[in-house]
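Hi R.,

Here are the chain sequences for the assembly we discussed:
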Amino acid sequence: MELSKNQFLGTDAGAVTFEDATVIVVPFGYEGGASYGKGTAKGPEAIIDASSYLELYDEVLDVEPYKVGICTVTPPGIPKTPEAMNRIVYETTGKILDQDKFIVSIGGDHSITPGCCRALQEKQGALAVIQIDAHADLRRSYQGSKFSHACVMSRIREMTSDTLQLGIRSLSADEAQRIRNEQIAVCTMHEFRAAGFNLTTALQRLPDPVFITFDVDVFDWSVVRSTGTPEPGGMFWDEAMSLLQQIFSSKRVVGFDVVELAHDEHDRNSAFAAAKLIYKMIGFKFISQIKAVKEK
Ligand SMILES: [Mn+2]
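And here is the predicted structure of the full complex:
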C-alpha cells in the first residue's frame, strides 16, 4: 500500500510504517453519491489537515492513543462511477484486512460504506453494522441509483439484518413503513432525547463483530455544520462520546468509517471536530491495549 503524504495526526505521530501500524486510515474522497451540498470529496483532506493540530493526549482516557500505531495510506485513485468506487473501496479494504489491520476509512460521501462492509464481512464471516446518522438511508434506490448515499443502509441490509440505527431524524413515509414491517432497530433522535429507546438491550441483541458507520450529519450544527445533507436538532459532542464509549466497551468493533464531512474553507471547526472524533474512537477501541503497553 502506498503511504499518504498527508498522515493523520501529521508526520510526528502518524509516521509509523504500514507494517508497524495497528490502525490504517484510508481517505476515500468520493462524492458521486451526494445529492444536496457539495464538498465531501475534499472532506478527508480537510480532516487529515485538521488532525495535525490535535492534542495527542486524551484527558478522559489518560493515554496517548496514537501509540497504538496509526498509518495513513492512499487508495488507488478515485474513479467517477459509483460502481468503480464501490469496487476500489472493497479491494482496498480487503488488502488492509489481509494484513490484520484495523481499518478507519474517511469519506467522502456515505456511498463508500457498503464496499468496506462487504470486505469486512468476508474476512470476519459475519458482520453487524451500527449506523450513527441523521438519515435512515433505507431507500432502495435514489435519483435512479442504487449506489446513492441515500440507500446505504438498504445495501447493507442486503448483506446483514443485524443493524442498529441511531440518531435518525429524517426519513420518508416509505422508509418508516419499512422499519415497521421489517422491525428494523432504529432509535430516532427524538427517542434518544426522550430516553424512549433501550440502547443497552439493543446492543445486547446485536451480535459481534460490529462495524460503525458514523455520518457527521448526526451532530448538532454547533459541533459539525459543514456536511452534505444537514439536519437540525442533532447530537451534542458529549452525548456522542458517551454513546460511542458504551458501544466500544460492550461490542467487538472491527472497523469504522466517518463520512459526509464537507470541506468549507470558512469553517475549520467542523473538520477539527471530525478529526477529534476519529482520534477519540481509536482511543475507545484500543484503550486496554495502550494501557497495557504503558504499564510495562
Ligand atoms: Mn446522513
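Residues 220 and 233 are 6 Å apart (CA to CA). The radius of gyration is 18 Å.

Let me know if anything looks off.

Best,
T.
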